[in-house]
Amino acid sequence: MEMDITWMRLLFRSRKLLPLDIEHCSPLALRNVILDTRTPAWILDHIAQVYYDDEYLLRDLVRCPNLSETTLAFISLTASDEIRTFIAHTRVISVVMGEGETAAGEAKPEKVLNVTQMIQHMGPGQKIKLALSGNKEARGILIKESNKLISAGVLDNPRITISEVEFFSKSQNLGEDIMRKIAKNTEWSKKYSVAQALAFNPKTPPGLAVGFVSRLRDQDLALLEKSKGVSEAVRSAVRGLITKKKMGKG
Q1: 245 lies in which domain range?
Q2: How far apart are CA 160 and CA 154, in angstroms?
C-alpha cells in the first residue's frame, strides 16, 4: 500500500513516469486516482487509452467530473454498447455519431456530444489508439485521416469486418497506402469482391491492380477494358487476357 501512495505522489509530479506506472499499478490505487477530483484530465485520458477494455474502470471514468469530452468520445468509440448507454444515462449526454444518429437513443439527454467533432480535436496519439481499438464509427472516420499511421491503423484493428474492407476497397477517396495494405492482405484479397474492387479502383497501385486481373470474370473484364478510370497498364493486361481467352476458345 505504501508503494501505491508513493506512486500516486510521483504521478502528479512527473508525466515521464506515467506510462509505466499506469500499466503496473494496483487496481485499488488506479481507482483512487480516478475518483480523486484533483486528478488532471490528461491523466484520466491516458488511463482511458490503456484500460479501454476494462468496463469497471470505464464506469468510474465516466462518473469522474474531471473527464474531458474528448476522452468521453474516445470511450464511447471504443467501449461496448452497454458503456455507451451508461454514458447517456450517467452523464445525461447523448453521443451523436453523425447527422443526428445517437449511440443510445433511450436516454433523454440534456446535452449532445458530436463524436465526429470530438475526434477532430483529438491529438495524433489519441487518434492512433482509437484507430487500433475503436468501433465501426471510429474506423469509418479515421480511415480518411491524412496521417498514414492513423489511417493504416484502422486496418490493424482486430474488430474490422470484411464488409468494411470491401467498402474501403471501392472508395476512391482513400490513399494508395490503404489500397496497398488491403491488397497485400491475402485473407482479404482472396475474396472476389475485394479483388474486383481493387482492380477497378484507380487508387490501387497499377502493379498490384494488374495482379487481380487474371481472377476477374469475363463480364468484369469487359467492363474494366472500357474503364477510363484505371491506368493503361491495367487495361493492357485486361486486353491481353481477353485475347488469350479468345484464342483458347478458337
Answers
A1: 162-250
A2: 8
Is residue 169 situated within a structural domain? yes
Domain-located, residue 3: no
Question: What is the per-residue pLDDT for 108?
Answer: 52
Distance (Å, rounded) from C-alpha 20 to C-alpha 22? Answer: 6
Cell of 18: 506515467
Residue 128 to residue 25: CA distance in whole angstroms: 24
What is the reported pTM? 0.77
The grid coordinates listed for 235 are 487495361
Read off the amino acid at residue 115.
V
Q: How far apart are CA 121 and CA 225, in angstroms?
A: 44
Bridge partners for 94 per DSSP: 112
Count the domains in the chain.
1
pLDDT tens digits, 110-156: 567 777 888 888 999 999 999 999 999 899 999 999 999 999 999 99
Average pLDDT, the chain: 84
3-state secondary structure of 248: helix
Q: For residue 113, what are the β-bridge partners? A: 95
Tens-digit pLDDT profile for residues 163-182:
999 999 999 999 999 999 99
pLDDT at 165: 97
Of 119, 121, 148, nearest in space to 134 by CA = 119
Distance CA 167, CA 197 (A): 9
Burial of 108 (0-12, 13-18, 19+ CB in 10 A): exposed
Q: Kindly state the DSSP code that residue 96 receives in the 8-state scheme.
A: E
Inform me whether the pLDDT recorded for 74 exceeds 50.
yes
